[in-house]
Amino acid sequence: MGETRKRGRKPKAPASTTETMDFQYTSASNATQTDYVAAQNDVFSAANDSVATAAAAAKNDANNPPPARRGRGRPRKSEAGHMEDTEPHAAASPERRPYQNGAVVLEPPPQPVAKWESVAARVVPAMDAVVKVFCVHTEPNYSLPWQRKRQYSSSSSGFIIGGKRVLTNAHSVEHYTQVKLKKRGSDTKYLATVLAIGTECDIAMLTVSDDEFWEGVSPVEFGDLPALQDAVTVVGYPIGGDTISVTSGVVSRIEILSYVHGSTELLGLQIDAAINSGNSGGPAFNDKGNCVGIAFQSLKHEDAENIGYVIPTPVIMHFIQDYEKNGAYTGFPILGVEWQKMENPDLRLAMGMKSDQKGVRIRRIEPTAPESHLLKPSDVILSFDGVKVANDGTVPFRHGERIGFSYLVSQKYTGDTALVKVLRDSKILEFDIKLATHKRLIPAHTSAIPPSYYIIAGFVFTAVTVPYLRSEYGKDYEFDAPVKLLDKHLHAMAESTDEQLVVISQVLVADINIGYEDIVNTQVLAFNGKPVKNLKSLANMVDNCNDEYLRFDLEYQQGVLVGR
Description:
By secondary structure, the chain is α+β, with helices and mostly antiparallel strands. The protein has four domains: 121-214, Thrombin, subunit H; 221-326, Beta Barrel (Thrombin, subunit H); 337-435, PDZ domain (Pdz3 Domain), CATH 2.30.42.10; 453-563, N-terminal domain of MutM-like DNA repair proteins (Alpha-Beta Barrel), CATH 3.20.190.20. Helices cover 16% and strands 33% of the residues. The model is unreliable at 1-22 and 25-107 (pLDDT under 50). Residues 442-560 form the Protease Do-like PDZ domain.
C-alpha cells in the first residue's frame, strides 16, 4: 500500500481545520488513492500487532513468562483511561486456597483481562450484522445542469436492525444509482433499495428484497446514550483491507456538533477510536454489545489525532421513528429564531429582567416559520417546554453537564408544538409554538432532484444552492465565492417557502448577447421592472412577455437588455 513510513507525528497538511466525511472511494485509480491516504496518515497495522501480542501473552503460563519485549504501536488504554504499556507483566505470587483433603492447594490468581478485550469478546455476536455497502453514484453537474458527472463507486459500512432494515450514512448513498450489500463472510452482493435518506442527520435506511440476505443474522440492539469515558468499539470496513475491522476507544465528549454533510447542528459523540475512510455507517458498540451510535465523520488537522465523531442513539431513534410515523423522512424541526446570549448584566437590566430570571434574547425570526407572528424580536426566551434556558443558551443535560437548548427542539418532530415562555416588556407570556423544518434561502441540499435551469438568448439562469457554490468554487467556496452570495448564504432569510436566489450562472456566447460575456454568477433582481421570486416565476414572465425587449435588472446596478 504505497511507501511505508515510520510511525510518528503526521506531516503538516496545507489545509486548515476541516471535518471530513469518511467513505472509501473505489475506481480505476484506487491504488493511487490508497497510496495517497497512506502517505497522509500513519500506518495503522500496529493494532493487529497489539492483538497478537496480547493473545501470545495469554497463552503463556503465568510461572513461565515469555521474554519481555517492547510492544509495537500505540499503548492500549486501561479501564481508568490512562496509557498502559504493552509489555507483559511479571507472574503474580500463588494464592492460598482453603484446605482440601488435609492439603493446602496453591493456585495462581486469575489473570486480569483488559477492558478492550472484554468489549471485543461481547461485540463478536453482533459483528455478523455489520455489512459492507457498495454504491454507484451519479452526481449532477451543477455548473452544467443539463448533464451529469461521470459515475463513480464507493464502499462504506452499515448494519442490520429490526424489521429487515439496514442503516448507513446518508453521504454513503448520496446521488445513488445502484446500492449493493455484502454480509460478513459472504461472497454474494445483494441489491438494496433505499427507503429513506435523512440528509440533516446523515443517516440512510435500506432494505433487501432477497430473503436469503436475512438468514442467520440477528439484528443489532440499541443501547442508551453512553457516559464520558465509557468504552466504545467501532466496527466497519475501512480502507486498508477487505475484511471487517474493529477499533476501540472511549467517549471523549458529548455535545451539540456540526454535521458536515447535513449542514446542521445536532447531538453527537466524540470518541478517540480510529475512524477512517470506509468506516462511515458502521456501528459503535458499548461493552454490552449494544449499538450506541453510527460512525460518520472525523477531524483532520495537523494538531489533532484520533478524533472521530459518532451519531448517538437519540438522533438515530428520531430518524427511525420519524420514518415509521410518517412513512417518509420529514426532518428535524427548528424554532425559527436567531438569538443572542444575555450574559451582560446591563443588557439584562435594560430588557427588564429580574435578578432570578435567565434566558436568551431573540434577534431575528424566520419569516417562513409557522408561528412567526407570535414571537417578536427582543423577546427573551425564558424556558422551552418547562425547561429553563440559561443566559448562555444552555439547559441541564445530565449530572454535571449542560447542552445547548437546540437539543430540546431537535427532540421534537415536524408539526409538534412546544410551550415557549418569553419575557416581553417586563411581562411573562406563554405561547404554543408549532415547529417546522428549516427553509433556507440557499438550500444546503437538493435531495434527489436534478438542478433546474432556464436558458434564453444564451443566458443560463439557475437557482443558487450550496452544491452549486461548491461546484463553482470548490470546497473553499466560503472564501472564494462572491461576497454578495456569501452574505445571503450566511445571513439572508427566505420571505416565503418558494423563494429562490436566481443568478445568471454563465453566458453562452452568441451574436444576440455581445458585450455580456463577462457576466458570471450575478443575481437577477427583476425582469421588466417586476421582482424575480424564483426561477419558475422568471421563466413564466419571460415566456408571457410581449414587449420588444427583455430587460433584466441585476445585482450591482447592472442591466441586461436584449431583443426578442
